[in-house]
């Protein structure tokens, strides 16, 4: 995709290992420093129960609003590089504990189906730990093919989630 100007994007942030509040806070600073990218808004931090195996610590989640001129896959590469800097280990356990998880939730109004990237992020509409912080900073945003964030947020349970 080529764009005449910056594209608004939203990134989900989560961590539940090695001081997760610090991991998320640090990730927000690092997102603001990405090339060709600026951080325009960040949600509050939210404590959420794990989506995966229950025998892991609660997560700290947030959503960052960015503007970028990076192409989607170039942005994905930058996000994965930040995860590596935070010693993210990919593999073994699906939805298992992690030091940092950065998910590209929305890239403008694009729908992307690539072997490395799906946008809107799969499962976004069912995940209160993403929708609550997203609705906090962008309630009027529409998720392509799914509708307004505010309506999606109203359709999920926020049980066990607390804003820090």
Question: Could you explain the architecture of this structure?
Answer:
The model has no long low-confidence stretch (mean pLDDT 91). This protein has a single domain (7-163), classed as 7,8-Dihydro-6-hydroxymethylpterin-pyrophosphokinase HPPK (Alpha-Beta Plaits, 2-Layer Sandwich), CATH 3.30.70.560. The protein is globular, with a radius of gyration of 15 Å. By secondary structure, it is of the alpha+beta class. Strands 1, 2, 3, 4, 5 and 10 form a 6-stranded antiparallel sheet that branches. It has a two-stranded antiparallel sheet with strand order 6-7. Strands 8-9 form a two-stranded antiparallel ribbon. 26% of the residues lie in helices and 29% in strands. Strand 6 and strand 7 form a beta hairpin. The longest helix is centred in the middle third of the chain and has 14 residues, at 72-85. It contains 4 helices and 10 strands.
